[in-house]
Design goal:
Membrane topology (chain A): Multi-pass membrane protein
CATH topology of the largest domain in chain B: D-Maltodextrin-Binding Protein, domain 2
CATH class of chain A: Mainly Alpha
Order of helices and strands of chain B: HHEEEHEHEHHHEHEHHHEHHEEHHHEHH
Order of helices and strands of chain A: HHHHHHHHHHHHH
Number of helices of chain B: 18
Helix content of chain B: 40-55%
Radius of gyration of chain A: 24 Å
Subcellular location (chain A): Cell membrane
CATH class of the largest domain in chain B: Alpha Beta
Oligomer: heterodimer
Helix content of chain A: over 70%
Family (chain A): Belongs to the binding-protein-dependent transport system permease family.
GO biological process, one term (chain A): transmembrane transport
Structural class of chain A: mainly alpha
Main location (chain A): membrane
Largest sheet of chain A: none
Number of domains of chain A: 1
CATH topology of chain A: MetI-like fold
Shape of chain B: globular
Distance between the termini of chain B: 50 Å
């Protein structure tokens, strides 16, 4: 084979080119278009007429934005913490079950994964039925049997946020569980055995042996789940629509409303960039963690 | 042959075709999930529609419209209709379609929600349909409809084929007399709550229905949403006072116990039907079309006890109600496609409304069919004297968004004046950027 015909001499671009083209078309082009729109006065009703920073000024001076960011922060933080905790808990359960050869572990994994494949809108609709406050509503009807409730799951602003978080956790736990399950599978069992021989209790083995080994997974999972949660709006749209008032209107839903109800494409683009910036910050953190691990 | 005879015959023949003959393979081939007409027709027009008629879940409705479409297409040999279904997320669907139309990628013809018509007009994407409608037909439209669908030159930019209005439903066994004022409505709600019911139900969640159902209260208080230029003014001057008054009415219903707190989470009309069917409510603010749904939901003896009346106002002589409905507009500059689009609009406005019992927007149709002369429909046509459409301006969807936020805020204990000022400021800011 001649040197010119040897593909390995062409450098990485030959191999990376197709992937970069596809990724560029799918991810980079929309992002660049959002950047372009953010510096215009474009609306859904007319094409841009000029280049300006007005959309940035409008977003920064929007009196509703601090409230939206606060709601987004609460929703994201609570979701990430609970998703991680539940995902780890279920992964430990399944992993332990696997090691002991208990029957039904595959079914348990499938059950958790079933929620993951439900589309966001359907997830919102399902939980809207569960949280219905009608006298014949799902969860309240069950609570009434034991003499509790009724609970204002969706009409009370604080509880509506809790309901949105529960719906998000129900759907997203599977992703965290998969991450932790894979990580647990990769751990060296010899360390556990050694700790056991040294007389460490189950709690000590978890806190001092298992958790330190999962540090990288916990951090990486947190970042991935954060990005995923920041982009969640479809389930909230179906569950509460962002209400009552703006009690559950997260940044992604606010962006959606700005574009599709206010027809404000440029301000929507700025909000989308803000969302992308928050996600990129999380991704940068992810990259830093990986570098540290290496 | 008069319009009356023509309408009756068309609807009858469609019903007969649909009901008496099993769908043949030939007909199934002529109507698919994405096409009406012969697959090999040389000409085609794209039409984006909702899923409540040609593609309805109800087989009878579906079959009736299939027959109506095929009958209509006989006037257009060599044509087929490429159908595109809209999702139920009306706001997003209408905004996306507008964006596509602006980019020249929209459908040739489409169903446009009356609340979005202003945006389509502002974007200049609608083609006049005057060639298919006489001046007499246009003049026969209800004034509020005619104003919304014609421009200053008298061009018919879309055909508003049915309307609806918001009414008060009540179980006369619990609430014998129709409340005419807000005070009476609150008293009736409290009385029904004491009798073990939920009280007066209404939409208070984040969706368009909340805004439209509440607007009658605002208009009855003397408020206007926009000025002559289309700028939002609902939170300024006398309008502000009306806005606060109407918001306070809703807030008082909840704080007094006349309505349950859960109204803040109601985001669809089906909740009212479910509550009526479960016997948990005796009063709700719903859409005019729900009367027939109620008939299908309740046992005959229970349905007989339910009546509709006009929305109560701040005083007995001050009433208003929001009028909605759908339009059909052409977005193609091909005259033949515009003509076909207009024929579809006439199909819906005439035999289509007869088949579905929807309220037409022109007086001639009321005279043309007995369907529209039932006591309930006659009552609706009387209520429509107080009917007001949503303003046909592009900023309306954002105004509605702010109204929903304001209602949610006051139902959660917020201050009506603060909610009004925030809504006005947000709507004004959005208006300046449009």
């Amino acid at each position: 084979m001649s040197r010119a015909a040897d593909p390995s001499r062409a450098g990485p671009w030959l191999w990376l080119g197709p992937a970069l083209l596809v990724l560029g078309a799918i991810y980079l082009w929309p992002l660049l278009d959002a950047v372009r729109l953010a510096f215009t006065d474009a609306t859904l009703l007319r094409a841009p007429t000029r280049v300006s920073l007005d959309a940035f000024a409008a977003v920064l001076s929007d009196p509703a934005l601090p409230g939206i960011l606060r709601v987004t922060g609460i929703f994201t933080a609570a979701s990430v913490i609970l998703l991680q905790a539940l995902g780890l808990g279920i992964a430990l359960l399944v992993h332990r079950g696997d090691r002991r050869g208990l029957p039904g572990m595959a079914a348990l994994r499938a059950l958790v994964l079933a929620a993951w494949v439900v589309p966001g809108i359907a997830n919102g609709v399902i939980w809207q039925i569960v949280f219905s406050e009608a006298p014949f509503g799902g969860l309240n009807a069950v609570l009434a049997v034991v003499g509790l409730g009724p609970v204002a799951w969706l009409s009370d602003p604080a509880l509506a946020m809790l309901s949105a978080i529960i719906a998000n956790i129900w759907q997203g736990t599977a992703f965290s569980m998969i991450l932790y399950y894979a990580a647990l599978k990769g751990l060296d069992p010899a360390l556990q055995e050694a700790a056991k021989v040294d007389g460490a209790s189950a709690l000590d083995r978890f806190a001092l042996v298992t958790l330190p080994q999962l540090k990288g997974t916990i951090l990486a999972g947190s970042v991935l789940v954060t990005i995923q949660t920041l982009g969640t709006f479809d389930s909230i749209l179906a569950l509460t629509g962002g209400g009552p008032g703006q009690a559950t209107e997260v940044l992604s839903l606010y962006t959606y409303n700005t574009v599709f109800r206010g027809f404000d494409l440029s301000r929507g683009a700025v909000l989308a960039l803000l969302l992308a910036a928050l996600s990129l910050a999380a991704a940068a953190l992810y990259a830093l963690i990986l570098r540290e691990r290496r | 042959m008069t319009i009356r005879h023509s309408l009756r015959l068309t609807a009858l023949s469609a019903a007969l075709t649909a009901g008496l003959t099993a769908p043949s393979w030939a007909q199934e081939d002529m109507v698919t999930r994405s096409r009406v007409g012969p697959a090999d027709a040389p000409n085609s027009m794209s039409f984006r529609l909702t899923a409540f008629d040609l593609y309805a879940q109800d087989p009878k409705t579906r079959a009736t419209f299939e027959a109506l479409y095929l009958d209509m297409l006989k006037q257009f040999p060599g044509w087929k209709i490429d159908t595109q279904l809209q999702t139920n997320d009306i706001g997003q669907e209408q905004a996306r379609m507008l964006e596509q139309a602006r980019a020249g990628r929209g459908p040739d013809c489409a169903m446009i929600d009356s609340s979005s018509l202003g945006a389509y007009r502002a974007a200049g994407v609608l083609q006049p349909m005057n060639a298919s409608f006489s001046k007499a037909e246009i003049d026969d439209l209800f004034p509020f409809v005619r104003k919304a669908v014609t421009d200053d030159q008298g061009n018919l930019l879309a055909y508003w084929w049915f309307t609806d209005l918001r009414v008060l439903y009540r179980d006369t066994r619990v609430v014998p007399e129709a409340p005419q004022t807000w005070a009476q409505a609150q008293a009736a709600g409290l009385a029904s709550a004491k009798a073990g019911y939920e009280g007066l139900l209404f939409s208070g969640g984040r969706w368009e229905g909340t805004a439209l159902d509440w607007l009658g209260n605002f208009w009855a208080s003397g408020g206007d949403l926009v000025d002559a230029e289309g700028a939002p003014v609902f939170g300024l001057g006398e309008n502000r006072a009306a806005f606060i008054t109407a918001l306070s009415y809703y807030a008082d219903l909840v704080t007094s116990g006349a309505s349950p707190a859960r109204v803040a989470s109601i985001t669809n009309y089906d909740d009212f039907l479910a509550a009526a069917a479960a016997g948990s409510t005796a009063m709700f603010v719903g859409g005019s079309w729900q009367y027939e749904q109620l008939r299908g939901t309740l046992a005959p003896e229970d349905f007989a006890a339910w009546e509709v009346s006009e929305l109560p106002g701040p005083s007995a002589d001050a009433g208003a109600t929001g009028a909605g409905g759908w339009t059909i507009g052409a977005m193609s500059d091909d005259p033949e496609k515009v003509k076909l689009c207009a024929a579809i609009a006439k199909l819906y406005a005439g035999p289509g409304n007869v088949a579905q019992g929807l309220l037409p927007t022109a007086t001639a149709y009321y005279k043309a069919s007995d369907v529209f002369s039932t006591p309930t429909n006659l009552a609706y046509s009387k209520f429509l004297e107080h009917g007001r459409p949503r303003p046909g301006v592009a900023i309306y969807p954002e105004i509605a968004n702010q109204i929903e936020i304001a209602i949610g805020a006051v139902l959660s204990g917020g201050d009506p004046a603060e909610a009004t000022d925030r809504a006005q400021q947000a709507a004004q800011s959005a208006y300046e950027r449009l």
